[in-house]
Design a protein that fits this description.
single chain; 148 residues; mainly alpha; AhpD-like; 2 domains; 82% helix
Length: 148
C-alpha cells in the first residue's frame, strides 16, 4: 500500500514536471529531449523532470518568471553556458523581458564576478537578440548542444 502511494506520488511529480518543463522550455525542446533519450540517461531524465520541474519549479512560492531569473543567475555564476542559453531562450515563454535579464546579470557581476557576467551577457545578446522563432528552434548550433 505504501509502495503504491509512493509510485503514484512519483508519477504525479513526473506528470506535473512534464507540464511545467513544456510550458517553460517549449514543446519542441521537450520532444527533442525525449527523442534523444537513451537507456543510459533515462533515469536521469526522469529525475530531472520529477525533481527540478515537478518538485521545485512546480512549487507555489515563486512564479515562473522569478524562478527563470534565479535559474539564469545561478547558471551564469556557475559558467554553465549551454544550460544558460536554453534558459535565456525560455524567458520568452514565461514573460521575462530582456531588461530584467540584464538587471540579473549586473547582479551576477557584483556577486559572482565580471568574467561570469561578461560571458552571460554574450550569451544573452546571442539568444535574446535573435527573432523569437529562431531562438525557440535554436538552429543547428542548439541541436549540437546536450539538452535536458
Amino acid at each position: 500500500m505504501a509502495a503504491t502511494r509512493r509510485v503514484r506520488a512519483r508519477d504525479a511529480r513526473f506528470d506535473a514536471g512534464t507540464r511545467v518543463r513544456t510550458a517553460v522550455l517549449g514543446a519542441e525542446h521537450v520532444a527533442r529531449a525525449r527523442a534523444q533519450q537513451r537507456p543510459i540517461d533515462a533515469d536521469f531524465q526522469r529525475f530531472i523532470t520529477e525533481v527540478a520541474w515537478g518538485s521545485v519549479w512546480a512549487r507555489p512560492g515563486l512564479d515562473r518568471r522569478i524562478r527563470s531569473l534565479v535559474t539564469i543567475a545561478i547558471l551564469a555564476a556557475l559558467g554553465r553556458r549551454e544550460e544558460l542559453a536554453l534558459h535565456l531562450r525560455a524567458t520568452r515563454n514565461v514573460g521575462v523581458r530582456p531588461a530584467a535579464v540584464a538587471e540579473v546579470l549586473l547582479h551576477v557581476a557584483a556577486y559572482a564576478g565580471i568574467p561570469a557576467a561578461n560571458a552571460a551577457f554574450a550569451a544573452a545578446k546571442s539568444e535574446l537578440d535573435a527573432p523569437p522563432q529562431t531562438a525557440r528552434q535554436g538552429g543547428a548550433r542548439a541541436r549540437r548542444r546536450v539538452k535536458r
